[in-house]
Amino acid sequence: MGLRFDPTRPIYLQIMEWIKRQAVRGVLRPGDRVPSVRDLARELQVNPNTVARAYRELEREGFLFTLRGQGTFITRDAARLARERQRLLEQAVQHFLEGLRELQPSPEEAERLMEILRRQLHDDR
Amino acid sequence: MGLRFDPTRPIYLQIMEWIKRQAVRGVLRPGDRVPSVRDLARELQVNPNTVARAYRELEREGFLFTLRGQGTFITRDAARLARERQRLLEQAVQHFLEGLRELQPSPEEAERLMEILRRQLHDDR
DNA sequence: CATAGTGTACTACCGGAATAGTACACCGAC
DNA sequence: GTCGGTGTACTATTCCGGTAGTACACTATG
Fold first, then answer.
1. Are residues A66 and A114 in the same domain?
2. I need a labelling partner for A10 at 20 to 30 A (CA). Which of A3, A54, A73, A106 fits?
3. Same domain, A96 and A52
């Protein structure tokens, strides 16, 4: 269970993002069932209401759908997931650039950072 | 006034980070006075208590110091600021890499991202 | 001295996040 | 039908962030 909560942000939002990331990277595939509200709550050590809220919001977004009495499932709309993945990628780059711009790294620092990034991106698979 | 609040995180934390960024990038220099609690509160459209809390925490961290009746000031410890700057840089890279790793970009995507980063880092100054 | 501008402390109140507990309707399998 | 597992709805409670308002001690300026 790889989920560490940021204590400064609502848990239900972090659960939502966590589910999205798992679906987007293929750990959860279109049509897959996500854990039951009670199971996930026990696993994450949070209240079932909190998980239920995350599921509810994700369903409102069309990211999940539920079958009463059966469970909650990842949308079967693969294009939806692909779009979300693209959005997350762009957002990550955007965030990073904004953060850097504010710190105004020198050309040397910038070069050093790029080197680190290049190494990491090619190493870890 | 370039500060947009993320509604999912406490305002006082975002003010703290904002001050730090300004100090670290030299907009605010060691020993400079920061706006009064009331002024900044009016400028950011928040309650003076919220700004006061941000200042209080930053003073507890040794990042600010106050002179009663005069105002609140950036620490004169330049090394402290340099260390903070380094910390923010590393944190930005770390965050970015974690975000990417989760999305598992293909080699082609990774190459495209690096290209975007390189262009942005060399362009915008 | 008086005044205005500092930070600071305090009370009161409101709203949202999270917890705890209970209950209900639905589905599948025995 | 019964039973266990689903999602869902609801109330009550606690905690914390944020707001509002007041008051006080300090400093610089005049």
1. no
2. A73
3. no
Q: Minimal Cα–Cα distance from B69 to chain A, Å?
A: 32
Chain D bases having any atom below 7 Å from a protein CB: 4-11, 16-22, 25-28
Q: Do B114 and A113 touch (CB under 8 A)?
A: no
From CA B32, how far away is CA B100, in angstroms rounded?
Answer: 38
Cα angle value B105/A4/A31 (rounded, 5°): 55
How confident is residue A33, by pLDDT bands cut at 50, 70 and 90? Answer: very high
Assess whether A68 and A103 both reside in one domain.
no
Give the count of domains, chain A: 2
Q: Are residues B23 and B53 in the same domain?
A: yes
- Domain of residue B72 covers 11-76
Helix (H) or strand (E) holding A34: strand A33-34
The residue with tokens 């890279």 is B93
pLDDT tens readout for residues A49-92 = 999 999 999 999 999 999 999 999 999 999 999 999 999 999 99
Res B72 pLDDT > 90: yes
A13, A118, A124: residue with CB nearest B114: A118
